[in-house]
Design goal:
The protein is an all-alpha fold. It has helices at residues 4-38, 46-52, 59-82, 92-121, 130-138, 143-167, 181-212, 221-229, 234-258, 266-272. The chain is 73% helix and 0% strand. 40% of the residues are buried.
């Protein structure tokens, strides 16, 4: 028998997590876009955007709330991956999707820890340097191939996200009220396509690092945006991607309100424990 209270609590945490993620990307996109309008450099990473909240009124309290929300999002991602909360199944496509959800849980746990650290201690953003992570991987046996595989994974995930936005694949799990669809559908599409395009660029930078055996050539979100800015019409491209990141934040908030969820209960968790099947 399902534990309704447990399910409700888990769903609240998951929705709070989508909301917290949305706030981070809205802040990131807004800061990056404002740097195009008024000059200067934006905080071109989620960790950097979080650090800007320290100087705001009640900044540490807001960061603490974001940390709690992101922790809920991590739990939801783990439920999607390990408990198959979205019923993706165990075929090749389902397992690949669930692997991506597990990777998202790991990445967002780092972001949650960053927000919590800022809320408790202040100081720098505490974000990890992507080139140092790539260097660590590259130093392992077959490290160059492993880095190339990481880059290919980013490219694949980016292409999949662009596709999801282009064909509105998210409608399988999000029910947007009809009166809001004319506004929210283009925002969701734009956000997914922009973030997917940035993932493709990040993957390309990582593969280039693998080919050149130079970890410093790899990069994250900040480096992808900087690369765009260095291209012809770079300021316009940068502005489009910055607005896209804000749109992706809005998409996350749309999920917080309208995503259909089947959160796990205590029985689902018990079934995953060894010897309880």
């Amino acid at each position: 028998m399902a534990l309704v209270g447990t399910r409700n609590t888990f769903e609240i945490l998951a929705r709070a997590g989508y909301g917290a993620k949305g706030v981070v990307y809205l802040l990131l996109g807004g800061l990056a876009f404002s740097s195009v309008l008024v000059g200067g450099s934006g905080e071109d990473s989620p960790e950097g955007a979080l650090s800007r909240l320290l100087g705001a009124p009640m900044g540490r309290a807001v960061l603490g709330a974001i940390a709690v929300g992101l922790a809920g999002y991590v739990l939801w991602r783990l439920a999607q991956s390990l408990l198959d909360a979205d019923d993706n199944g165990t075929d090749a496509t389902g397992l690949l999707t669930r692997a991506g959800q597990l990777a998202s849980a790991v990445a967002n746990s780092v972001l949650a820890a960053t927000a919590a650290g800022l809320a408790l201690n202040g100081g720098g953003s505490g974000g990890s340097d992507s080139s140092s992570i790539i260097a660590m991987v590259m130093s392992q046996p077959f490290g160059q191939w492993m880095v190339g595989a990481i880059g290919a994974t980013f490219i694949g995930a980016g292409i999949a996200q662009v596709y999801r936005g282009a064909v509105r694949d998210y409608e399988d799990r999000i029910t947007i009220p009809a009166r809001f669809k004319p506004v929210l559908d283009p925002v969701c599409q734009y956000g997914l396509i922009a973030r997917g395009a940035l993932f493709v660029i990040i993957g390309g930078l990582i593969i280039f690092a693998a080919i050149t055996v130079s970890p410093e050539n790899a990069g994250g979100l900040r480096d992808a945006l900087d690369w765009l800015r260095s291209q012809p019409y770079g300021a316009a491209l940068y502005g489009l991607m910055a607005a896209g990141l804000a749109a992706y934040g809005a998409y996350a908030i749309v999920q917080a309100f309208y995503r259909r969820m089947d959160p796990p209960d205590a029985n689902d968790v018990k079934r995953m424990m060894p010897g309880t099947a």
